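User: Let's play a game. I give you a shape written as tokens, and you guess the letters that built it. Ready? Here's round one.
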């Protein structure tokens, strides 16, 4: 076996991902359950300073609570032996008590003492409420019936109050513009998760609807680029808003579409995923820092050279998922790309206290020394678990 052999490449990736898994299990999860979980029972803190002290004064976004709940439920399901159940139960209880509205949906923002200060609807938040329910159903099977009923209630309320007349969902009631692809991406992820948990449920229909919306409207038919903002007819918004391209979302949609294409035997979905990946890797990776940047224009010129941690995790997930759905030289190209994604991720994790992370890397000034946002943990946990799973399957194939 040579160092450049396919088996050697997989073995090297497995070793690197194993190191990440140890960082997650030994450093990050214990720190975020001890310090990131509020001692007064009020859910999860928004941020932890690089000194290891939580930022107590932050208002708390609705989305952070189910995202953190997902992280600990996924950890428990994957064999982590820390006190994940208590974290999950506290997160769910505070989320429902603080953010849930009479409609059965969730508000947007609460103060640290648990007062709902912004009850505004955001489709993004509902997607993560549904997503946490799916993961809880797996990690705590005794709660599956309860979580399914809760998820169906949320989905029913969404359809009743915010269903778009063509496809997908509105951003408000009464409707307003722009409509966004990003919250639909997380609904797409969530419906895929629920399909696995509850194969006979109503999830598949919405999965297919969002896939069609993405392939027919979100993704430009000529260039293959994924757009972010749309008018009420699902046409790109005029002006700069309609030209915004986020490489991180290109990778994230590629990951989701290749999974979808594999499950539905859809060559179209897989080809669109490959094109999204190609655009993000070719134009969205800074040639100097070798990391994914935040923004492009639709002509692929740089719009925002700032880099954040989360797009690096989406690069890793997409490259590995494309690898498992490829063979031969094509698989090796995606595996080589996943190695680059690991290189891009690592500097964000090199903090004074292990288990934290830096969120932003500027083009000229290096990492920004600021508190680690809890919202990023979802991306990290999902990427590490996905990498472990995919590499194990590749090793057996």
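Assistant: Ready! My guess for every position:
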């Amino acid at each position: 076996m040579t160092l450049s052999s396919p088996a050697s490449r997989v073995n090297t990736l497995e070793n690197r991902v194993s190191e990440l898994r140890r960082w997650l299990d030994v450093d990050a999860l214990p720190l975020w359950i001890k310090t990131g979980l509020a001692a007064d029972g009020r859910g999860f803190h928004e941020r932890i300073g690089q000194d290891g002290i939580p930022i107590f004064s932050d208002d708390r976004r609705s989305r952070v609570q189910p995202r953190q709940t997902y992280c600990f439920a996924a950890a428990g399901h994957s064999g982590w032996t820390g006190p994940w159940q208590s974290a999950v139960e506290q997160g769910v209880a505070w989320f429902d008590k603080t953010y849930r509205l009479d409609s059965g949906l969730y508000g947007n923002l609460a103060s640290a003492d648990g007062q709902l200060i912004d009850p505004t609807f955001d489709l993004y938040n509902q997607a993560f409420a549904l997503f946490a329910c799916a993961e809880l159903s797996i990690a705590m099977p005794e709660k599956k019936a309860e979580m399914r009923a809760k998820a169906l209630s949320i989905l029913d309320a969404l359809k009743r109050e915010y269903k778009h007349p063509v496809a997908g969902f509105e951003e408000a009631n009464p409707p307003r513009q722009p409509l966004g692809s990003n919250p639909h991406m997380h609904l797409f992820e969530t419906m895929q998760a629920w399909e696995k948990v509850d194969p006979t449920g109503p999830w598949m229909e919405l999965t297919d609807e969002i896939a069609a919306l993405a392939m027919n409207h979100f993704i430009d038919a000529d260039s293959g680029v994924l757009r972010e903002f749309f008018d009420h007819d699902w046409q790109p918004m005029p002006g700069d808003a309609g030209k915004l391209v986020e490489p991180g979302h290109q990778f994230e949609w590629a990951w989701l579409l290749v999974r979808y294409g594999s499950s539905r035997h859809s060559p179209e979905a897989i080809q669109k995923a490959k094109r999204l990946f190609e655009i993000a890797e070719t134009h969205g990776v800074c040639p100097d820092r070798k990391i994914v940047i935040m923004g492009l224009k639709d002509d692929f010129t740089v719009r925002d050279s700032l880099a954040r941690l989360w797009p690096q995790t989406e690069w890793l997930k997409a490259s590995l998922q494309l690898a498992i759905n490829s063979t031969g030289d094509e698989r090796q190209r995606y595996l080589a790309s996943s190695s680059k994604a690991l290189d891009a991720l690592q500097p964000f994790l090199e903090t004074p206290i292990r288990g934290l992370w830096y969120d932003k890397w500027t083009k000229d000034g290096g990492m920004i020394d600021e508190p680690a946002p809890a919202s990023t943990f979802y991306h990290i946990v999902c990427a590490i678990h996905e990498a472990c799973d995919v590499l194990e399957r590749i090793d057996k194939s």
